[in-house]
């Protein structure tokens, strides 16, 4: 089926072949606008605050695992009821993202980010005074899930698309890496606070962090460079603020209906679902218990997971840099093949001690962990044009579905088989499947398997840029 989208925010003036001097210099202000400070474009300040906001929101994702024992001890709630709240949080997180992208297009990035941070602060504050397990589901599952989901990868993609023409892949990589980095940076500190002060001070700490970021967002973040009288970073011509369309929710659903009729949506979404299954669904959920099965101390296993988070930031930044220069499809193939080989080898590497082999594993896996995001974001942009950020929100929802499915599969397999060996091998096979899917993603302008699929003009422009850059 054919599917055509009308772009509202094309990339005028982009030039993949620009010289480094031109890329690094602050572009001239548009007519009637003011010139940015010499050498520093406002876009970098916006990206910095957006990254700090993502780090703060991501810290909440590290909390559910730390809350299980304290809440079970204090309230005598079942671990199942506590886990249900965490599951609701994950589902809401995944489903709200595409609507958040449309709402940002409709009402602006700053307003939606402030609303999301407010929901997070209110949800965290109410969690400290809850008395029933259903309240945990409401406060942590719904409020915090909706808030953090609004400040996830679609937020990063929207900021990068609005504020950057050049270095867009690099910025997307840095911002998406900030999510995993935030979880791992906060995890040791939150664990120490809970161990020494209790779980309530840990949540209050996170609430204060989110409140602080709300102030910075209000002061620094702007929806579009035109609001500050500027051009996007790297743009050679004036870029007006995109036309605002009413009905953000309807647009989100309309974009989904159009996207599901395009085969490339399912190819991109299917590969990204495997990404979720082989990262969030298996490593973040089952690595620690699998290591404990082999006699490794829980503190050592948790430290190894933290190393993955730290190196994931470097991996996404590097991936963003590579995405600006190479075919994103080939990058995805390399990432999934590498991840699959690592997961296939993991049963032989796990043991009671953290030897050199397992340290190498976590470092390399960290580099590949979130590296799939920049190429996937760029492919959504190229295939679906101005709707790319919303489409990526739905693709990210499939990522969460994959993660949830693998988390359930891993636990069931551990109960039935008495070990995680089949889980790692299944995950490795899925990575091979994802690599094959990545090869099936047609370039913009190509018609896969004789099907009739049209590109938005925005996507066609990206295709021309690719040919110029020799991708």
From TrEMBL:
<feature type="domain" description="Major facilitator superfamily (MFS) profile">
    <location>
        <begin position="45"/>
        <end position="446"/>
    </location>
</feature>
<feature type="transmembrane region" description="Helical">
    <location>
        <begin position="170"/>
        <end position="193"/>
    </location>
</feature>
<feature type="region of interest" description="Disordered">
    <location>
        <begin position="1"/>
        <end position="34"/>
    </location>
</feature>
<feature type="transmembrane region" description="Helical">
    <location>
        <begin position="424"/>
        <end position="442"/>
    </location>
</feature>
<feature type="transmembrane region" description="Helical">
    <location>
        <begin position="391"/>
        <end position="412"/>
    </location>
</feature>
<feature type="transmembrane region" description="Helical">
    <location>
        <begin position="331"/>
        <end position="350"/>
    </location>
</feature>
<feature type="transmembrane region" description="Helical">
    <location>
        <begin position="199"/>
        <end position="221"/>
    </location>
</feature>
<protein>
    <submittedName>
        <fullName>Sugar phosphate permease</fullName>
    </submittedName>
</protein>
<feature type="compositionally biased region" description="Low complexity">
    <location>
        <begin position="11"/>
        <end position="34"/>
    </location>
</feature>
<dbReference type="InterPro" id="IPR020846">
    <property type="entry name" value="MFS_dom"/>
</dbReference>
<feature type="transmembrane region" description="Helical">
    <location>
        <begin position="138"/>
        <end position="158"/>
    </location>
</feature>
<feature type="transmembrane region" description="Helical">
    <location>
        <begin position="82"/>
        <end position="103"/>
    </location>
</feature>
<feature type="transmembrane region" description="Helical">
    <location>
        <begin position="43"/>
        <end position="62"/>
    </location>
</feature>
<keyword id="KW-1133">Transmembrane helix</keyword>
<dbReference type="InterPro" id="IPR036259">
    <property type="entry name" value="MFS_trans_sf"/>
</dbReference>
<keyword id="KW-0472">Membrane</keyword>
<dbReference type="Pfam" id="PF07690">
    <property type="entry name" value="MFS_1"/>
</dbReference>
<dbReference type="InterPro" id="IPR050327">
    <property type="entry name" value="Proton-linked_MCT"/>
</dbReference>
<feature type="transmembrane region" description="Helical">
    <location>
        <begin position="265"/>
        <end position="284"/>
    </location>
</feature>
<feature type="region of interest" description="Disordered">
    <location>
        <begin position="446"/>
        <end position="471"/>
    </location>
</feature>
<dbReference type="InterPro" id="IPR011701">
    <property type="entry name" value="MFS"/>
</dbReference>
<feature type="transmembrane region" description="Helical">
    <location>
        <begin position="296"/>
        <end position="319"/>
    </location>
</feature>
<feature type="transmembrane region" description="Helical">
    <location>
        <begin position="112"/>
        <end position="132"/>
    </location>
</feature>
<feature type="transmembrane region" description="Helical">
    <location>
        <begin position="356"/>
        <end position="379"/>
    </location>
</feature>
<keyword id="KW-0812">Transmembrane</keyword>
């Amino acid at each position: 089926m054919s599917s055509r989208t009308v772009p509202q925010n094309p990339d005028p003036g982009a030039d993949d072949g620009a010289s480094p001097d031109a890329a690094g210099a602050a572009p001239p202000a548009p007519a009637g606008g003011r010139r940015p400070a010499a050498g520093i474009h406002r876009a970098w300040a916006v990206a910095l605050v957006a990254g700090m906001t993502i780090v703060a929101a991501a810290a909440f994702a590290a909390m559910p695992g730390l809350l299980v024992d304290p809440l079970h001890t204090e309230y005598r709630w079942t671990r199942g009821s506590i886990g249900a709240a965490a599951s609701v949080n994950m589902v809401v997180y995944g489903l709200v993202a595409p609507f958040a992208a449309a709402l940002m297009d409709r009402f602006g990035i700053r307003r939606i980010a402030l609303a999301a941070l407010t929901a997070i602060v209110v949800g965290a504050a109410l969690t400290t005074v809850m008395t029933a397990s259903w309240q945990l589901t409401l406060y942590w599952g719904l409020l915090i899930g909706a808030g953090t989901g609004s400040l996830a990868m679609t937020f990063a993609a929207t900021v990068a698309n609005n504020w950057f023409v050049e270095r867009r892949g690099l910025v997307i990589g840095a911002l998406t890496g900030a999510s995993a980095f935030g979880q791992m940076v906060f995890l040791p500190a939150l664990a120490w606070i809970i161990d020494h002060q209790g779980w309530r001070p840990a949540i209050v700490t996170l609430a204060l962090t989110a409140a602080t970021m709300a102030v910075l967002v209000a002061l620094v973040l702007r929806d579009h460079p035109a609001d500050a009288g500027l051009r996007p970073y790297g743009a050679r011509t004036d870029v007006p603020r995109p036309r605002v369309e009413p009905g953000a929710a309807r647009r989100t659903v309309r974009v989904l209906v159009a996207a599901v009729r395009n085969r490339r949506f399912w190819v991109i979404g299917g590969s990204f679902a495997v990404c979720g299954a082989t990262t969030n669904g298996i490593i973040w959920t089952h690595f620690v218990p699998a290591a404990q099965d082999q006699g490794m101390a829980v503190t050592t296993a948790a430290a190894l997971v933290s190393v993955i988070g730290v190196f994931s930031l470097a991996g996404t930044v590097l991936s963003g840099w590579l995405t600006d220069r190479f075919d994103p499809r080939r990058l995805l193939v390399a990432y999934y093949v590498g991840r699959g080989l690592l997961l296939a080898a993991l049963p032989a590497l796990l043991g009671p001690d953290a030897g050199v082999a397992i340290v190498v594993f976590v470092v390399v896996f960290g580099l590949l962990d979130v590296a799939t995001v920049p190429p996937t974001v760029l492919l959504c942009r190229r295939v679906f044009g101005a709707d790319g950020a919303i489409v990526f929100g739905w693709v990210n929802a499939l990522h969460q579905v994959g993660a949830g499915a693998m988390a359930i599969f891993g636990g069931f397999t551990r109960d039935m088989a008495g070990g995680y060996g089949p889980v790692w091998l299944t995950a490795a096979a899925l990575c091979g499947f994802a690599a094959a899917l990545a090869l099936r993603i047609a370039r913009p302008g190509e018609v896969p398997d004789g099907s009739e699929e049209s590109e938005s003009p925005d996507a066609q422009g990206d295709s021309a840029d690719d040919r110029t850059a020799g991708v």
